[in-house]
Amino acid sequence: MSRIGKLPINLPAGVDINLIGTDITVKGKFGTLENTIPDVLEVEQADGQLVVTVKNQTRQTRSLHGLYRTLINNMVIGVSEQFQKSLVLVGVGYRAAVQGKTLVLNLGYSHPVNIDIPENIAVEVVQNTTINIKSCHKENLGLFAAQVRSWRPPEPYKGKGILYQGEVVLRKAGKSGKK
Asked: Of 7, 56, 79, 82, whose CB count within 10 A is highest?
């Protein structure tokens, strides 16, 4: 049995869960998320907790057990608290701004970079160099943050680029001059 899969999922106040067949819908103050569970798994709700169980034990079902327990837990956390990632722009002249539903980045190119913000994601720019991204859907949040970061990943010589909050870039020495 999966160690992660057998852990119960605690339901905070204000979170509603609807189980209809293999479909699960989680509603909270930050949104609604839906997912489909494989037929080999069962989800039971009892006194403020969800328990994911497996119908038959095979290698495949044991791996799905832990995966879907984690996915459902992320759905519950997302609609009750929201997930957040922070990106930091490091470099001279690197700036960010939100204009409507577009994130505008000045990253040293000859033109500004415009990135459309998806519907379920909220973007906030602090002091022109810190981008706070919030969403109830963890996967979409990570994909959007990676998409923004892909425009200028950190480089190892000067440490410039778009970094995740708290990320450390391993620096290289570079060329040494003539002696």
From this structure: 79
Using DSSP bridges, classify how beta strands 49-54 and 9-10 pair: parallel, antiparallel or unpaired.
antiparallel
Architecture of domain 9-80 in this structure:
Alpha-Beta Complex (3.90)
> Could you tell me the two tokens for 133?
């991204």
Mean pLDDT of 35-62: 88
Question: In the chain, which segments carry CATH 3.90.930.12?
Answer: 9-80, 83-164
Polymer length of the chain:
179
Tokens, residue 141: 């949040």
Taking the C-alpha atoms of residue 153 and residue 141, their distance in angstroms, rounded to an integer, is 17
Half-sphere exposure (CA, 13 Å, Cβ side) for 22?
7
Torsion sign, CA atoms 112, 114, 115, 118: positive
For 102-160, write each residue's pLDDT tens digit: 999 999 999 999 999 999 999 999 999 999 999 999 999 999 999 999 999 999 999 89
Q: What percent of the chain has pLDDT over 90?
A: 64
Is 59 buried (19+), middle (13-18) or exposed (0-12) by CB count in 10 A?
exposed
- Report yes or no: 141 and 83 within 8 Å, Cβ to Cβ: yes
